[in-house]
Amino acid sequence: MKTIRNIISAAAAAVVLSLSSCVGDLNVTPIDPNMNTADKALVTEDDFVAFLAQVYTGFSTSGSYGPNGDCNISGVDGGYSQYLRGLYHLEELTTDVSVCGWSDKTIADLHAMCWTTTDIFVYSIYTRIFYQIAMCNEFIRQANATSVEMADKAEYIAEARALRAYCWLHAIDLFGNVPFADETSVVGAALPEQISRADLFKYIEKECQELLESDLSEAVGNYRYERANKDFVRMVLAKLYLNAEVFIGEKKYDECAKVLKSINGYSLHNKYQELFLADNNVTSQDEIIFAFQFDGKLTQSYGGTNYIIFASTGGKMDAASVGISSGWGGIRATPEFYDLFPSGDARALFYTGSGDEDDQQKDIVNISDFKYGYATMKFKNINSDGTAGQEQGFVDTDFPVFRYADVLLMLAECGLRGCSEVTKTQGTGYINQVRGRAGIGNLDDSSFTEQELINERGRELYQECWRRQDLIRFGMFTTNKYIWQWKGGVHDGRAVSDHLNLFPIPESDRIANSKLAQNAGY
Prior knowledge:
Layout lengths: L3 H9 L3 H7 L15 H4 L3 H13 L5 E3 L3 E3 L11 H9 L7 E2 L7 H5 L7 H26 L7 H22 L3 E2 L14 E2 L1 H15 L18 H13 L1 H5 L4 H9 L18 H4 L4 E5 L11 H8 L7 H4 L8 E2 L2 H4 L11 E2 L23 E2 L22 E5 H13 L7 H15 L11 H12 L5 H7 L33 H6 L10
Antiparallel strand pairs: 1-2, 3-7, 4-5, 6-10, 8-9
C-alpha cells in the first residue's frame, strides 16, 4: 500500500467476471496486470472504470483471482481478510448474536472479549479498511490528475469518496484514533500521522456534506443498490450522527433525524426473509439501499455471505435446505439473544433441533461443540421460489449494508432521545412499522422504552454488523447492564473492562509507524 505501483497493480488485476458480477453496470474489459503503473494502466476511461470497479470488488472478495488466488492482504488467510467477514468478526462475534466454536487462531477470544494487540482477526479488518481507503485515495488522485476525457469523471470521483467515507466510518467506530491519509498525501513520502477521533468525525461529516452537494447520483426512482449514491452517503452520515455521543461526546440526534428524513423512495419489503435470500437483488430493491454483491459463479469468496451461511450451518441441519453443499459448523446464537424474540416473530429464523439430545440445544454448555446453541438461518442460498442458488459451494446472496428498516429504527431512536425533529409519538409509529412487518404487536408511547428499542434493533438487524455498535451506544456492551453466555469468557457471562469498547491499533502497525499511539487500556 506504500507505492502507486502496488495500488494500481491491485486495481489492474481485476478480472472481468468479478467486475460484471460485483458492481452491476461496471462491465469492463480487464486491464493487463503487467501494465501496473499509472501512466501505462490508466490511459482510457474504461481503465478508470476498471479501477473503480476493483474498489467495489474489494468489499466482496479477498483478491482478484477467486477465493484463494492473489489475496490483496499478504500474510493473512484470504477468508479472514475479506471485508465483510472481518467486520462480522468484530461487530457480531463479540456480542450476544454469535458464538463460534472453531479453534482457528484467536477466534475464541472475540466472544470471550479478551483480544490483544496482536489478534489476527483485529489485524485483518484493520488492514482491509485501510487497503480500501488507499485504493479510494489512489483512484481519486489519478482521476483528478488525468487528461483522459471522461463524461462521468465527477461522479466516479464522488463514488470513490463515498466508499472511502464508509470505510472511515468503520475506522472511527472500531479503532477511534487512526492513521490518516487522503488523496493529497504523497504516497511513500512519510508515515501517516494519527488523527484524533474528534477530528476524524469532522472530516467524515464534511466529506458527506460535500458529497450531498456533488454530482453523485440520487437514488430516488433509480434503484442501483450496487453503486454508491446520495442515499448511501446519507446513511453513512446518519450513522455518524447517531453514534456521535460515543464518538465525540456530543449528542447529534437532531442532525441525524434531518438526514434520515431526506431519504425517500423506499419501503419495507413485505417478506422479511426475502431480504436475505439468493435472489434478493431481484426481489428486495424496494428496501435495500446499498448491498455488497455476491455471485456463486462469478464472485467467489470464503468471506461475505458465503461465510455467514456456511458457518451457520452444521450438526444435523439439512444443508440442502439452506442451498449449500455442506456446513462448516461454527456460528450459533446465545440463548439470551434467542429469547429476545416473542412468539410469532417472523424474524426468529433459527434451527432449534428436533428435541433429540444429539441435536441443537439452547444452552451453550460447550462453546466448541456446534450442537450447543441454536443455529441461525436468516441468510440462505435459496431463491424466493424455493430453488437453490446457482452453486452450492458458493452463494449468490447479496449482503444488505443499509436498509430502510434501519432508517425507521434510527428515526424512532431519535424520537425516543428527545430529538426536536421527531416526537416520541412519531418514533413509536416508526418502530411499529417495523414490528408490524414482523407480525408482532404495536407499542404505545408508555411501552416504547430504550430496552424495547435495543431489543427491536437486535431482532431486526442481527447478523448485519450493527450489534456491537448498538450495544455500545446503549451502554450494554462491556457493562453488567446486559449479560449473555460466555461474555467475558465464562459460561454465565460477566462484565468486562470498558476499554474494550475500542479495539487496539495492531501492534505490527505501531512497530512500523512510531507516530501511532495505542488506545487506552491496551
